[in-house]
Structures are given as structure tokens and as C-alpha cells.
Amino acid sequence: MKHNLKKVVIPLVTVFTVALGITAFQANDRYRQVPNDSFGKGERLEYRVHYGFINAAEARVDVSNSIVNVNNRPCYRVNVFGRTVGAFDLVSRVRDQWRSYIDTSAILPQMFKQEIEEGKYRKEETVLFNHGSNVVYSSVKDEKKSFKVPNNIHDVISGYYYLRTLNFDRMSVGQMIEVPTFFGGEVFPMKVRYRGKDEIKTKFGRIKVLKLNPIMPNNKFFKGEESINIWVSDDANKVPVKVEVDLWIGSLDMDLKSFKGLQSEMKWM
What we know:
By secondary structure, the protein is mainly beta. It has one domain. It has helices at about 1-20, 85-90, 160-165; strands at about 45-50, 55-65, 70, 75-85, 95-105, 110-120, 120-130, 135-140, 145-150, 175-185, 185-200, 205-215, 230-235, 240-245, 250-260. It has a 15-stranded antiparallel beta sheet that branches. It starts with a helix and ends in a 9-residue tail after the last strand. It comes from Persicitalea jodogahamensis.
């Protein structure tokens, strides 16, 4: 069991990042205007991650109550926290924090920060986005680098919030959503396939959902490129309510544990 736990801890961060960082369509203008009735200040979501019957981790996502200015643009400050619990915490302790400052009108990142604590590994990074010049500036300790990026680049958190503003009724089942994303000093195409509408059972009751399938690259942890399934509420909020991840050594599940401050009332059945 201890051997298996070590193999599961590593993908936990990816589960948080993918589930809460799905991205969407790329626009062509530098500072677009994106209508948003899906999220706002004061929203708070909490999740429970379990490996079989074992509690593995917890995640919290919240939008601060105040608007902050970054690059002279008003921004939502979105905080994401992930931590291992129980036996997983004893095997390999994880305390990760990500923060994205998302432009309130363009729904684009102006700044991204991460503080990583995974076992003995530590990393702190600050990324500043210049959308006018399509350049990002990354600072890790005393090392500073600049990267040329595509138009309307996202970080792994801001893309999910952009996704929540979209109308999935205009998409066809099986349609692939792709957008360039900057993370870890690299630009990569994050891909998500829309699988259509569904209905699932949660601790709060049954709910109508949209099923999404992030496409994963081949690796030693995930069982194939379609190993992650995400169900988001089929309403204006588009909140992830359930995630299933197939690993080579088993499966992980992430479920919505609590929520508050939503823009619209969740439509439980």
C-alpha cells in the first residue's frame, strides 16, 4: 500500500491543475470584452480527493472579495490551495498554492503565482503577462526569463474561468477545444473534448452536467490520453462537481464538498 501511495501522490497536483485549469477558445483581439455572468467576488469551492475509500487530498478554490489592480487593469484574485491528508500526508506531504490575477473584462491573466511544497521539493514562481506585446516574464528565485507567447495566452487557472463564460449549447458533441497555455516555462496546447450532456448523483442531489475530457500526453501515471473525465454543472455557474482519473495503479475521484458565493443558484434535481 505504501508503494502505491507514493505513485498516487505525484499525479494529485495534476488532478488539481487539470480539473481547475481547463481552457477554452482563443480570441483574436488583444483586449477582448468577455461577458461574464458565471462567477464573481466571494465565490468559494471546496473539494475532496479520494483513492478508493482513502481520503487522499483536499482542494479549495476561492475568488477574493475585493478587486485588485495589476498592470493597471482591474482583476479578480483567484486562489487555489491543494494539500494531501491522512496516509498520503505521511508518505509525501503536499502543500501547493496557485494564484491567478484575472482581468475582469477580458478574462485573461495579468499575473500568476505558485508556491509548491511537495515532499522536499520547493518552488516559488511569479509570472507577469504583457498581452500588448505577447510576452510573459517569469521569475524563479533570482532567475528571470522572458518568453514570447501567442495572443491571449492563459495560465492554468485563468483558462478555467474563461471556460465558464462559454455557451456549450453552441458546441457539438465530440468537439475539441484547444488554446495555448503558459505553465512551467513552456507554452503548450491544452486540449479538452466536449462529450455532451449528462446527469450524475452528488452529495447534494442529482444534477444536470456537461461532460469534459481533457486530453493527456502519454506518461507513466495516467492510463491513456482520455484518462480524466470532468463533470461541470449545466447552468450559468459551470462548476466542476465531479472528476474521475484513471491511473495505471488505480483511480482517483474528486467531488465537490462545499460551495458558497455563486452567482446563480445551483439547479439540483
